[in-house]
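Hi Y.,

Following your request, here is the sequence exactly as I used it, all 481 residues.
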Amino acid sequence: MHSFTTYLAEETSEEKLSHLEHGEDHVINAGDAGFKHAIDTLTGTHEMLTGKKSGVSLSTKYDGSPSVVFGYNPENGRFFVASKSIFNKEPKINYTPEDIDRNHGHAPGLVKKMKEALEHLKKVAPEKGVFQGDFMYSKEDVKKGGRDLKFTPNTITYGLDKDSPEGKKVSDAQMGFVVHTAYKGTTLADMKATFNPPLSGFKNSKDVHMIKPTVDMDRVDYNKDTQAEFLDHRDRAIAEYQNTGKKSFDALNNSRENLKTYINYNVRKETTPSPEAFVEYLKGSQQKDIDSVKTEKAKAQKKEKWEAIIKSASTNKPKLRSIFEMHKHLQSAKNVLVKTLANASPFKHEINGKPTEPEGFVASLNNRPTKLVNRAEFAKANFDKNRGKPAIADNLAPDPDNNLTLKSPDQTKPLEKKQPELTAGARKTVSRAIAKLKEKQPEKKYDIAGARSQDLGRVAKGSGPLSNLAKSELDRRHRNK
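Below is the corresponding structure, written out as tokens. Let me know if you'd prefer a different format.
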């Protein structure tokens, strides 16, 4: 598979696991480069599920809390545990229970979990290396429900038959934990992350139930109808990008964070994003921001700032509409994959006593992870559960459907101007997608003036309105030579 993610990596520094993005949000984060990253990741996951070779590695995303960084400090050889505050300019690192009391005493629940992690993770950790993962349960967190053993680390309640292999591990263990990231470096400051790492170096201890994040592909049924549904949404996203979307990304320049907040607002309200509603949302945010300050000078400054943002959104409604269209189809394509993978987990899942699917999965391409979560189901449930509640760990990410997430592409400057030309394989994918859609959307006015002649040649071989346009454009170019 031809990959664009190396282009993104050149523009960002992703060394510590601090923020993990929904696949469709890459479009908002990084425009052109973000769209390509999303398409490559989703397509790679699709190819893996069909049995083809793919550069994507896949793991189950567990809804644990808190997230713990642990291992042996390469600078002094001492075993430690930490929250993600270890990556702050002034890191909080815990070698002893007294360190935990001093660094996290304001959060008793976190203190308890950290002390258990300090006591037990040393029993299974390799003699070298630093890792990160999610705390799933302590001994007292496990409850009996009929034949099942259940624990609720965050939003989801996990259940296992007490007589199953994993259930017996739960019965014996003092804690459950899942590792998702490994770090390498000569100092903590220069550590670089590897996602979905092999865990062969970990030791065994009955006190620690090491939950494997691997996906059991034997439990996955990715049938032809489901594959067609995925490809339809993916190809619609590609067609929108090729014909309209890539000209629209300058509308994101001063609206990226507001747009992401607006998307999450729609998840909570179960509504559909639109440019018109986005403008109204911005006006409401403007008033709240103005009301938050007291002096007339501060209010005037707030008003001026927001008026520029609102004017930009109002002027760019057609471009925002195209971005929402791409976002919608990327999200729908992702949801097909999430639903397909839902049966791969050995656990039963509940939220507030009602059966649900797993939280989701993480697809990593070129060591760049992407969150695959059905926002309409799990993310909304997590928003609702966490509304008004304080975080139990230090400096948790603002998006309440993750404990820790991977730093997103640069949100302060557009990246698309720095991108190289599409590869031949990428152009082929785009032109094939447009050709496939010509009968479903014959009324669509495609902009083919900027298309490459070789792409038009492929489309012209077909039949229908789009192929006729391609033939006409090729004839025009031939006459003008």
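Residues 1-18, 388-421 have pLDDT under 50 and may be disordered.

Thanks again,
Q.
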